[in-house]
Prior knowledge:
The structure holds two protein chains of two kinds.
Chain A: E1 11-15, H1 17-27, E2 32-35, H2 42-54, E3 60-63, H3 67-79, E4 84-88, H4 90-95, H5 100-105, E5 111-115, H6 130-133, E6 141-145, H7 148-162, E7 171-175, E8 185-189, H8 192-198, E9 215-216, H9 225-254, E10 262-265, E11 272-276, H10 280-293, E12 298-303, E13 305-307, H11 311-318, E14 323-327, H12 342-350, E15 358-363, H13 373-389, E16 396-398
Parallel strand pairs in A: 2-3, 2-4, 4-5, 5-7, 6-7, 11-12, 11-14, 14-15, 15-16
Antiparallel strand pairs in A: 1-8, 6-13, 10-12
Chain B: H1 45-57, E1 61-66, H2 69-72, E2 86-89, H3 94-110, E3 120-126, H4 127-133, H5 135-144, E4 149-154, H6 195-202, E5 207-212, H7 216-228, E6 233-238, H8 242-245, H9 252-261, E7 269-271, E8 276-278, H10 289-293, H11 304-320, H12 327-332, H13 344-353
Parallel strand pairs in B: 1-2, 1-3, 3-4, 4-6, 5-6
Antiparallel strand pairs in B: 5-7, 7-8
The structure holds thiamine diphosphate, iron/sulfur cluster and magnesium ion.
Magnesium ion binds next to helix 4 of chain B.
Amino acid sequence: MATTAISTKKKTVRMNGCVASAQAAKYADVDVITAYPIRPYTATMMALAQMVANGELDAEYIVADSEHSQLSIAHGASSSGARVFTGSSGVGVQFAYELYSPISGSRMPVQMMIADRTLDPPGDFGSEHTDALSTRDMGWLMGWACDAQEAFDNHLMAYRIGEDPRVLLPQMVCQDGFFVSHITTDVELPDPGQVKEFLPPYKHPYPLDPRHPVSHGPQIMPEQGPPLQLERARAMEGSMTVIEQVHDEFAQIFGRKYDPWVEEFMTDGAEVVFFMQGGHAVTARFAIQHLRDEGVKVGLVRLRTIRPYPTDRVNKVLSKFKVVGVIETNMGLGSVSSGGSLYAEACAALYESPQHPLVISFMAGMGGEAIVLKEFYWMTKKMMEAQKRGKIEKRTHWVGFEE
Amino acid sequence: MPVIEVQRQQLPILDSPNQGARFYNPDLPSSEPFVPGHRTCAGCGPAIQYRMTSKASGDNTILVGPTGCMYVANSSYLCTPYNVPWAHTQIGSAGSFTAGVAAAYEAMIRKGKWKGTFPNIICEAGDGSASDIGLASISGALYRNHDCLIICYDNEQYANTGIQASSRTPYGGMTTFSPPGPKVPEAKTLYPKDLARMMAAGHPHCYVATASVGYPIDLMNKVRKGLNHRGAAYLMVYTPCQKGFVYETPRSIDLGRLVVECGLYPIWEWNPEKRAYDYSFRPQSMRPVSDYLKLQGRFGHLHAEHIANLQKFANEQWRMMGVELPEALSQAADVKNQVNMAAAAEAEVVAQTL
Ligand SMILES: Cc1ncc(C[n+]2csc(CCOP(=O)(O)OP(=O)(O)O)c2C)c(N)n1
Ligand code: SF4
Ligand SMILES: [Mg+2]
């Protein structure tokens, strides 16, 4: 891989997560953008509308009549060979539900930005990951950023991964509503030359092009289902190698190195760890630093990519500890833990490990409440008690509702 | 960034638009974007329409097919009848998926990412898709004026799911969701949604027209006018379905003419430049609705009063078209002058067994 010439147009600008996502779409030179208003992701589409109005970005900007239409527009445009950007939040993510499987099934690398929002009822603007997580098995690559810079970077990497001919899958690039989407931080915007080097133009092998007629999505007989489903499953599995390659290349060109699967924070010598995704990890780092100063052996494992799920990696990392506290930030009503859905996946990943840590599910950050430092301390205490006891008190704790 | 001007197609309009299906027009293009190899029923009106429509559009065309018979019965994996690019989309995505294709080509041509003349982009939506579940998506595409043509092939029911009532099913039409019975002798009690007029009224900048498979040259010309129109166009085409209407297979084109001759399917155009309807299309003769109804099993249960109601409905359509009503048709709207369908009693028994 060639290294970049000294970049001259790199700049650091203060912006929130929503604007960082819009900037990423601009750097990716998207062709078709489709929007429908719902807070908090709207701010991304507002920023893009302004860029198009200013002539900074040449793209078709389509105000759709619903999220279902948004995703269908994205599907049609991507099928025709255009690079597409769309997004949503909360119930908007679910209004479009029908389209998730058709888009991944037709192997169209549509990109969707999610700024999480709690589902109704009742109407609540706060962040909860249930919106995007409810689509997690639909064949979309999916991961969470914890700050605006990471959101920007994830968008560029996701296009590169999803459009790779070995992958061809849509991507959900998620960030917490408000905690990331509306908190302003420094974001380094790259030199356009770096992006050019990193992200080649989108080229689907079989677009809807009158010069090379193809049929997309004809009706099948049941016996034709298994091979097609297997192919989609293999694309998802096979994306793991590409994801790792792309993260390496990103680091070479942009100088920011991310572990594609999990971030480990102060896990050296840790006995109990938080296992979580998204913006609350920023608070978790503070809490852990403070607890470490007091001699508590606590650390953080932050999941960056949840689809494809890094099963082996999660197994390897989490097996090192005595207790794992899963912070859910999502609803899994009546699920395995009767809490959220992350617990079951973590436990399944750990199942084949000879040494099982104890696993606890913490229902925290629900409804978009901030998870404050003292709650992290309380959860640490629960994990330490379990470690001492050699047994969990119960599978799920609703944080803030117990002593 | 290069900004390239988008080149668009202009298709010629054919002569003799009011001729019947057996009239040979030497100017018809020889290209066949819709070829044999599908599984539609014999005499399928929507499939006949598909062939005419795509022929009129030519090879630089992209077709979009929301779920319905023209998806399910047309396309089999590894064997589809489309000689031009075609994509399935969801039944509620007729207008939106099509808008995405159009937007992609606008951007890709303008930005120099695709070189060529803007393709004809046609969506073939059933009436269930167009009048119910995909209505908002089509309205969105028309409103935003994407350069595309949305066709509703109107077989007046959800055919592919086994004949259910849609907003386009006529009053008196028997379907599996609107069966006749002692409490509801007429079967479907509601009149059809005036979909094409709704599209014209709500999106007056669009070319909007109605057509029928009974008048192929007129249909093809309307396809071309819709495609030549810079922006969105909407076309609603009467396409009988022998499975749901229950008629003799070879009579699809006849029904396509009878439905117009009896006034149940007014043929008109909305001219977006003049912001006016053009009602000048006239069938060669006018007939009572019973001539049309009696050929179809779906109306076999109707009683005199229901037929009179349908005649009243047809007479209103004639008046709306500005046609002076012959005395015989006014008379036919009077229940005293109607008789029950010959097989009404038997038809009800058959309906009970469905
Ligand atoms: C979201 C959704 N709901 C229901 C269906 C089931 N469905 C498949 S085909 C069809 C009938 C479509 O009717 P229409 O649009 O009139 O087309 P036709 O079958 O008459 O050609 C329906 C309802 C579906 N495919 N998707
Ligand atoms: S059921 Fe009707 S619309 Fe469907 S293929 Fe048969 S004739 Fe055509
Ligand atoms: Mg139909």
